[in-house]
Amino acid sequence: MSGNGSGERQVLLEVKDLRMWFPILRGVLQRHVADVKAVDGLNFHIYKGETLGLVGESGCGKSTTGRAILQLYQPTTGEVLFQGQDLVKIKRGQLRRMRRQMQMIFQDPYASLNPRMTVGNIVGEPLEVHNIGTKPERMERVRELLAVVGLNPYFINRYPHEFSGGQRQRIGVARALAVNPQFIVCDEPISALDVSIQAQIINLLEDLQEQFGLTYLFIAHDLSVVRHISDRIAVMYLGKIMELTTRDALYDNPMHPYTQALLSAVPIPDPVVEEKRQRIILEGDVPTPVNPPKGCNFSTRCPKVLDI
User: Fold this and answer.
1) What are the phi and psi torsion angles at 106 (to 5°)?
2) Is 11-276 in CATH node 3.30.1340.30?
3) 226: number of CA atoms within 13 Å, CB side?
4) Which of 47, 66, 71, 308 is the most buried (most CB within 10 A)?
5) Is the dihedral of CA 93, 97, 103, 108 positive or negative?
6) SS (H, E, C) 91-127
7) Biggest alpha carbon distance in the chain?
């Protein structure tokens, strides 16, 4: 972990009361009738050099959170402080310069790479956008990046359709590294890959973090993967964080009923332990983010809910 002189860890990113509401418009006049509360008042911070895992079931707002942090979505309200600067309030020119420090690895390696561009152009595009180096220098940098992520530098003139899913995700990782960022949002980077390839990509991300001092927000719904890569873990449900603590504390002593239910569903490769373990089956469906429950968002499905 990186830190300052006093021995305390340095906060790289701080999110305060972040909301991302998508308006629902109806009728010919497109009247605003309601909002989809995809992200609803998040507060957390990420230390420099650490990996914060963000987990939860599909549709809980994990990917929206990552995109709102990087300002790919304009947040409805809240602050996103990166190195002390509020990304929500800074001007577009400033934000463009700040984007060199923040990058994203997308979920689907088949959809996130332009099929009409060569690998050299895909990985080199961020360098071109930020006017870094001459054309020969950019091509040399692309070859270096391909070698760093475990691909042959001579693949520079090939197209995405010539690669497997795992290789495409490596190209996506190389593109994210091109401008030497400090912070990377990994938006379920292994969920579309085979299990054998998932381990390779996770190991690659860990090696790169050590090599370049990267900070990750690692979004996933696979709790065993998150346990492997994360320092701290935030559990999300219906747009809100239910529990945020260190990896070991979360797995050894989960406090929130939703976390307990999630962990009870993770298979353990020990038949003796697995047989004694009690599954927590949640009843009912996830409420709509248009009209979340009063009080705790999990109250409609919680086995420990109280009338208050």
Assistant:
1) -85, 165
2) no
3) 27
4) 66
5) positive
6) CHHHHHHHHHHEEEECCCCCCCCCCCCCHHHHHHHHH
7) 68
Residue 161 to residue 42: CA distance in whole angstroms: 39
Q: Tell me which residue of 7, 50, 65 sits closest to 214, measured CA to CA.
A: 50
Residue 22 tokens read as: 């998508």
CA distance 243 to 287: 19
* Low-confidence spans in the chain with pLDDT less than 70: 1-7, 270, 273-275, 308
Strand partners, 39: 20
Q: State pLDDT tens for residues 181-231.
A: 999 999 999 888 888 888 899 999 999 999 999 999 999 988 888 988 999
* pLDDT value, residue 3: 42
Nearest to 237 by CA among 39, 51, 36: 39
Buried b (16+ CB within 10 A) or exposed e, 277-292: eeeeebeeebbebeeb
- For residue 246, the cross-strand partners are 232
Q: How high is the pLDDT of residue 128? A: 92
In angstroms, how far is the first alpha carbon of the chain from the final one?
A: 41
Contacts of 152 (CB under 8 A, 6+ apart): 146
> pTM of the predicted model, to two decimals?
0.89
Residue 178 one-letter amino acid = A
For the sheet with 240-246, list strands across it: 102-105, 183-187, 215-220, 51-55, 232-237, 240-246
**Ordered strands of the 11-26 beta sheet:** 31-47, 11-26, 77-82, 85-86
Contacts of 232 (CB under 8 A, 6+ apart): 50, 52, 53, 244, 245, 246, 247
Q: What is the pLDDT of residue 281?
A: 76
CB atoms within 10 A of CB 8: 9
